[in-house]
């Protein structure tokens, strides 16, 4: 065969492979408002940067007439590309080919690109659109998932792993994303569940829609499985792009620095922070008043909104913010907010991103619901995550820092490097009302006018403890600062901590309260 005819043969083979599941299946995919797998990859990576591998891989199924079927690329597209000029490894499951189900060779393609990402130390992006383990391939599909889960775990904390859910993802197709660092969902398109509506109907006799069971909003608001919620696939891809601009390629690097930029004038602390200590405010506006261009990229915005987490830059360098949100439940810590913050702290710590913590909370949420939901176990996660984190930790106490909340929110005792307090800070074991009721109970009850005595005792307690100066007198707080100095002091502290080293006792690993 001449070079020309060989080239023609290659072209023909490529054309066949690029057909995916065929026109009918592609039309169905488009009718559902979804892009095809290859279109998705091309829309995420830089123009002309995608290099596909394993296009000619064939499936290994032999049973149930599978040997008579061709499944182009075995239902997954994989390769390398760049985003903003930086390399990434990427795969996208092709729902038009056997529902993107995961057979043995499909899994092999994914694990190959995962191994590449791990070896080259570049981020991994997985686009999931799959009915889960390919039923016809039996244990070989399960084996494939097992290999993927193992590699997700091995790569955890080494390279950033990003999962994009762009279809009905069932069974094993949701556990790999759950092991990765960030999960992106799109309204009306993403569905995640372990057992689908069919199984639920068969086993439990209940009718439920895929949307109700595990739609994008369910995972962005209720389960917390999703970190970013978008209204379209394009919006989702621009969120991925933005996230990658804030984080490093791997755990041996720092995030790429940007030019310093001042916060926008529209965000001024004196306008945002209320005079009345009982009045709520949006902590995100305080963050915006502190960071470059007032650009705060919030993570898990819709889940457990009583705590706010996300990335921003101060003097060009990426920092991770963790902040109580007085607008929601007065910013208390509870089961979900503890989980949310703990995972974010561990991500930042693994990827050399300094942590800035803003504190304003009355403590952990009381009540039987929280106690029975395991607030002890979940609440302990945030203590563990902060104590374990060895990146620079800077804490600013704005207003309330009561009880366990004071300790948990990156206190000096969990080894924050710098702890600052605004003059409005109130650092105490509990709020003055509760404290006075407990420690002066006998005196109040015995008084002729108990309410008057109670008020007096509340005031007494407030004057004694509900300020930053007792903590400052013991060195638990390094400095009481003017709110307007906060950005400057954080920037200075980040600079001072640039070569921070922490020595720890030798161990294989700790045992966090998972
Ligand atoms: C083989 C599958 C498949 C699967 C879908 N297909 N899922 N083939 N194995 N797991 C095929 C369908 O037969 C169909 O083929 C095509 O993909 C499109 O599927 P539809 O059902 O027509 O699409 P839709 O109506 O959109 O429904 C999508 C779906 C549904 C919700 C994902 O297909 C479904 O419920 N599939 C099974 C999901 C599931 O239970 N997976 C768990 C597997 S066990 P044709 O030829 O007709 O076009 C598992 C265990 C791992 O994953 C556990 C790890 C911890």
Classified by CATH, the class of the largest domain is Alpha Beta
CATH topological fold name of the largest domain: 2-enoyl-CoA Hydratase, Chain A, domain 1
* Rg over CA atoms: 26 Å
Roughly how many Å apart are the termini? 61 Å
Topology:
Blueprint: H1 3-17, H2 23-31, H3 37-44, E1 51-53, E2 76-83, E3 86-93, H4 104-120, E4 124-128, H5 139-155, E5 161-165, E6 168-170, H6 172-179, E7 182-186, E8 191-193, H7 197-204, H8 210-214, H9 216-223, E9 228-230, H10 233-246, H11 269-272, H12 283-290, E10 297-299, E11 307-314, E12 317-324, H13 335-350, E13 355-361, H14 368-372, H15 375-388, E14 393-402, H16 403-408, E15 418-421, E16 426-428, H17 432-439, H18 441-446, H19 450-465, H20 469-473, E17 479-480, H21 486-496
Parallel strand pairs: 3-4, 4-5, 5-7, 6-8, 7-9, 12-13, 13-14, 14-15, 14-16, 15-17
Antiparallel strand pairs: 1-2, 2-3, 10-11, 11-12
The structure holds hexanoyl-coenzyme A.
Hexanoyl-coenzyme A binds next to α5, β6, α6 and α7.
């Amino acid at each position: 065969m001449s070079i020309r005819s060989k080239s023609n043969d290659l072209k023909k083979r490529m054309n066949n492979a690029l057909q995916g599941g065929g026109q009918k299946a592609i039309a169905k995919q488009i009718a559902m408002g979804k892009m095809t797998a290859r279109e998705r990859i091309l829309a995420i990576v830089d123009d002309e940067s995608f290099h596909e591998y394993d296009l000619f891989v064939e499936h290994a199924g032999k049973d149930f007439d599978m040997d008579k079927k061709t499944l182009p690329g075995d239902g997954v597209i994989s390769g390398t590309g760049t985003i903003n000029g930086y390399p990434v490894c990427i795969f996208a499951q092709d729902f038009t080919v056997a529902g993107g189900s995961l057979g043995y060779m499909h899994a092999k393609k994914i694990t190959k690109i995962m191994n590449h990402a791990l070896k080259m130390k570049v981020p991994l992006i997985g686009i999931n659109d799959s009915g889960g383990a390919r039923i016809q391939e039996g244990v070989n599909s399960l084996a494939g998932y097992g290999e993927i889960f193992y590699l997700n775990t091995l790569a955890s904390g080494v390279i950033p792993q990003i999962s994009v859910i762009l279809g009905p993802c069932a069974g094993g197709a949701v556990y790999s994303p759950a092991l990765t660092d960030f999960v992106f969902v799109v309204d009306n398109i993403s569905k995640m569940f372990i057992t689908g509506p069919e199984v639920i109907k068969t086993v439990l006799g209940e009718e439920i829609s895929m949307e109700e069971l595990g739609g994008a909003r369910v995972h962005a608001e209720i389960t917390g499985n999703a970190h970013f919620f978008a209204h379209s696939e394009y919006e989702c891809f621009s969120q991925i792009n933005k996230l990658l601009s804030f984080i490093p390629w791997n755990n041996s690097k720092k995030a790429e620095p940007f030019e310093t930029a001042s916060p926008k004038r529209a965000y001024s602390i004196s306008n945002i922070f209320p005079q009345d200590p009982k009045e709520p405010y949006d902590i995100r506006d305080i963050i915006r008043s502190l960071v470059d261009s007032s650009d705060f990229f919030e993570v898990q915005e819709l889940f457990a909104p009583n705590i706010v987490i996300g990335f921003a830059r101060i003097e060009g360098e990426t920092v991770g913010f963790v902040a109580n949100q007085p607008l929601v439940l007065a910013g208390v810590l509870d089961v979900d907010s503890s989980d949310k913050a703990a995972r974010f702290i561990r991500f930042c710590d693994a990827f050399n991103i300094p942590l800035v913590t803003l504190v304003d909370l009355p403590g952990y949420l009381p009540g039987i619901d929280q106690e029975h939901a395991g607030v002890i176990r979940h609440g302990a996660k945030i203590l563990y995550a902060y104590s374990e984190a060895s990146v620079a930790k800077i804490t600013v106490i704005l207003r309330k820092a009561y009880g366990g909340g004071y300790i948990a929110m990156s206190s000096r005792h969990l080894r924050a490097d710098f702890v600052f307090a605004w003059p409005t800070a109130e650092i105490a074991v509990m709020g003055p009302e509760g404290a006075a009721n407990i420690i002066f109970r006998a005196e109040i009850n015995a008084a002729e006018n108990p309410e008057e005595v109670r008020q007096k005792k509340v005031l007494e307690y407030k004057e004694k403890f509900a300020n930053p100066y007792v903590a400052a007198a013991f060195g638990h707080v390094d400095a009481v600062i003017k709110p307007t100095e906060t950005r400057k002091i954080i920037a200075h502290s980040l600079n001072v901590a640039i070569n921070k080293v922490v020595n720890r006792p030798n161990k294989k690993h700790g045992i966090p309260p998972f």
